[in-house]
Amino acid sequence: MSPKLLILVVDDNPLNVDVLEELLEDAGFAVASAFSGDDAIALAKGEHPSLVLLDVMMPGMDGLETCKAFKADPDLNSIPIILITALDDRSITKQSRKVGAVGYITKPFEEEAVLACIQKYLGS
Hints:
This protein has helices at 14-26, 37-47, 63-72, 91-99, 111-122; strands at 6-10, 30-34, 51-55, 81-85, 103-106. The chain is α/β, with parallel strands linked by helices and 124 residues long. 31% of the residues are buried.
């Protein structure tokens, strides 16, 4: 049996984390979660996730700053990051590329869209 791919979910809203954890676990992934950018970076250094789902709007270090920090760290910069945002405007596309994210998902998200996006960037 092959090991499960680990996905790190980062969101300051515990309900969003719970929903994504359940979706991802049901799809066969291992899941770790963090509720802030600082916690996400610390956890990623220890766990080395295959992919990060990262909320954009968080207090303190927001998702864009967190993504920049991941991409500036040689130990973390190869991890694909998908931003999750309630912002539904074209500027998020430009912002996500600028900070090094591979893509983004808008809230409220559809389960199939989340899984399709993850599969796209994990190469499965």
